[in-house]
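Consider the subject:
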Amino acid sequence: MSTIKFIKNFLRDPDVASITPTSKRCVRKVCSHIDFDRDLIIVEYGPGDGVFSRYFLERMTEGSKLIMVENNKDFAAHLNESLTDPRARVIHGRAGDIVDHLEPEEVGQVDYVVSGIPFSFLKKDRKIKVLEATQTILKADGRFLAYQTSGHLKKPVMEVFGNYSTEFELLCLPPYFIYEVVNRKEPASAAS
């Protein structure tokens, strides 16, 4: 996607978090928390023009899946056109509705959810909805990885997951807090 198109989407859509795609340094830092040596299901919230998505696909095994959830129609169309890898699937919708978009056998089996959506832009009830949906789709000990420009996600993450660790990456533009959250709750299907 061209820089001009990216900027136009930023100006038109209040849910687009940044005027530029995520830096390669941030992508590498977030992805250092992912074990690409095994088959994975990765869900990505807010992939934008696909900077993380391409990085995932270059490293994922043949048996892995990448499910991208993009609410911006221009970005969703761009991803559908540019990422033709059979392991990749684009969902045009909101992160909080992810449970409705996954196959039943995928719910509770996701290894990693990676999010760049700007949680600071969301009202509290929507933040909680996204985090609860994330907990539902993650397998036990699955990870939620989020990169955010402030520490505002700590309280809602504690409310839903009860844990997090963060690191601050100053050398990214913009600088990011990188959250790693472990799903310590057993999926509903496993508990019954």
About this structure: The radius of gyration is 15 Å. Helices lie at 3-12, 24-31, 51-59, 73-82, 98-101, 124-137, 154-160, 188-191. The chain has eight helices and seven strands. Residues 114 and 145 are 5 Å apart (CA to CA).
